[in-house]
Design goal:
Strand order of the largest sheet: 10-9-8-11-12-14-13
Distance between the termini: 43 Å
Radius of gyration: 19 Å
CATH superfamily of the largest domain: Vaccinia Virus protein VP39
Number of helices: 8
Number of domains: 2
Strand content: 25-35%
Shape: globular
CATH architecture of the largest domain: 3-Layer(aba) Sandwich
CATH class of the largest domain: Alpha Beta
CATH topology of the largest domain: Rossmann fold
Largest sheet: 7 strands, mixed
């Protein structure tokens, strides 16, 4: 499989907001993760070994499959970038380069380092060293050809909410499981039954590998391909969806049918501007807000039925 590395280099007086909006454009084209480069970001001290040099410019990088949707994706990306107002980004340059599957995976590895999500949760790439403290819960991860590394605010916020509201033994459904990072997090926090769904069979394979690599027994989890929650006939104490606003919104009416026991729904991948839209829909379906977290123009919401 060939991939097309797509780099959007931009100038902005508010680069964090611009990066979030450009990331959302990529996500709207089916990408569940991107690389964000900033000349203002320094690696943490435990990233120092083999760290990449500081980027010279702000950029967001995504990877498109070289398939029959490539040209359509390119046109859509260009149209959306061209529509960005100068107040967001006063100049943008989109460049493309071919990359094969092996180089694709290696390029992600270069940008992926141990990252502390909370006081206890740490995500550690399988190829990096990390000295854990006594209370650390270390999640070993190899994202492979799936997205979900814990470095993006949407994933980190979702993990923090799982840590706060998941009770030991609770069952959990992860919609759009990607690398399986949220299921691994739940398992290490004491969850019972684990279930994950993703539209991409490659992501499902990667998620299985990551669960097993974290010593999670195969009889504790089930993963499969599917279109969101269509066809799910089981009930769970917690449902999590770290995807996109436009995907979460129409899914909300289906969530109550999937909940039992604790009846908690966690949604992430929501741009700040769409936060109230999601909250209004949740309240329409009798959810009560537990917590709303925001970081770098992204929002995650925990609600209870």
């Amino acid at each position: 499989m060939k991939w097309i590395q797509t780099r959007v280099t931009f100038n902005s007086s508010d680069p964090e907001s611009a990066a979030a909006i450009i990331t959302d454009i990529f996500c709207g084209l089916g990408l569940q993760g991107v690389i964000v480069e900033s000349p203002d970001t320094d690696p943490e001290i435990d990233w120092a070994q083999n760290a990449l040099p500081r980027p010279e410019k702000n950029a967001v990088i995504g990877f498109f499959r070289a398939d029959d949707r490539l040209e359509e994706n390119r046109r859509h990306l260009k149209n959306e970038i061209d529509r960005l107002p100068a107040s967001i980004a006063d100049s943008c340059l989109v460049t493309y380069s071919d990359i094969d599957e092996q180089d694709w995976a290696e390029s992600w590895k270069a940008h992926f380092h141990p990252v502390r999500i909370s006081k206890r949760l740490v995500v550690k790439p399988s190829w990096r060293d990390f000295q854990a403290a006594g209370d650390d819960i270390v999640i070993e991860l190899d994202p492979g050809m799936a997205f979900g590394t814990g470095t993006h605010p949407t994933t980190a916020l979702c993990m923090q909410l799982i840590e706060r509201y998941l009770k030991p033994g609770a069952s959990i459904l992860d919609v759009g499981t990607g690398s399986g990072i949220l299921l691994v997090t739940a398992a290490k926090l004491g969850a019972g039954r684990l279930c994950g769904i993703d539209c991409d069979p490659v992501a499902v394979d990667v998620a299985v590998e990551n669960l097993l690599a974290n010593n999670i027994s195969a009889n504790r989890f089930s993963l499969g391909t599917g279109d969101l929650v269509t066809g799910v006939d089981q009930k769970f104490d917690m449902v999590v969806a770290n995807i996109l606003t436009q995907t979460i919104l129409p899914m909300i009416p289906e969530i109550p049918k999937l909940l039992t026991g604790e009846k908690i729904f966690i949604a992430s991948g929501i741009v700040v501007q769409s936060r109230d839209l999601i909250i209004d829909e949740l309240e329409k379906w009798n959810f009560t807000l537990l917590e709303v977290l925001t970081k770098d123009e992204w929002t995650a919401i925990a609600a209870i039925l």
